């Protein structure tokens, strides 16, 4: 059963509204609710500021804080918790992307707390559908894999091949 | 149609120097607005660390479910950010206009101390005028 109520796994990902036909994406991260990085793939990343462990921690921390900020700054909700209180997935307002001059970060959190982050070129459009597609791939190949222990990094071979071919489909 | 919910100005150290709410239900008290401003300052800095390429100057737009946040950082590190309805256009121009007002009515004010909260009447008057003009233009569309 698909979380987002879609039908069978679609054969090709949705075409995002972006510019150009070249590879748009820089990296992808998948975190679980405890901050364990389940998957990290990079395709184009000329600059590495920190080592991988610190980079993952920084990314998770940034997302946690930005979610907290978005929930607090929500202009349509009068009564909010205090800043910094951990929010349940789906509780309060959450952000779905942010853009800087050099990259755009697209974010999606599932009700089980799995966070999908795709870092792309700044000109990319709304990638929420694409992230849902990636989530469906995750459900299909990882969550449904009887040999996969939840909370450990993803090592499934067929999932990796999928992820390698995926950015070329942008 | 498209509305501005609030406007913040933070100094180069991350301290809030100006906060104006334009009628959102999420109006914050002083302490909360200070915390939110400092948090934004830190997030802005961290986002530069995570860039895959060089030359990143920080978050310019944050899109959430119920609002968008546009941020403009001047060369001196002063940040102007506005919380508005999702999909509001021309916020970058508005922020640049606010920056011009800041340089004219705050920085050129001889009694204004740098990095301190803004208490300049002319800035408030002209800012309200600029926001209203923006609102009228947006509603007129």
Automatic annotation (TrEMBL), chain B:
Keywords, alphabetical: Endoplasmic reticulum, ER-Golgi transport, Golgi apparatus, Transport
GO CC annotation terms, alphabetical: endoplasmic reticulum; Golgi apparatus; TRAPP complex
Cell compartment(s), UniProt: Endoplasmic reticulum; Golgi apparatus, cis-Golgi network; Golgi apparatus
PANTHER family per the UniProt record, alphabetical: TRAFFICKING PROTEIN PARTICLE COMPLEX SUBUNIT, TRAFFICKING PROTEIN PARTICLE COMPLEX SUBUNIT 4
Lineage, opening ranks: Eukaryota, Viridiplantae, Streptophyta, Embryophyta, Tracheophyta
Coiled coil start-end: none
Signal peptide bounds: none
UniProt-listed InterPro entries: Longin-like_dom_sf, TRAPPC
GO BP terms: endoplasmic reticulum to Golgi vesicle-mediated transport
Name assigned to this protein: Trafficking protein particle complex subunit
Subunit structure: Part of the multisubunit transport protein particle (TRAPP) complex.
Entry's family note: Belongs to the TRAPP small subunits family. TRAPPC4 subfamily.
Highest rank taxon of the organism: Eukaryota
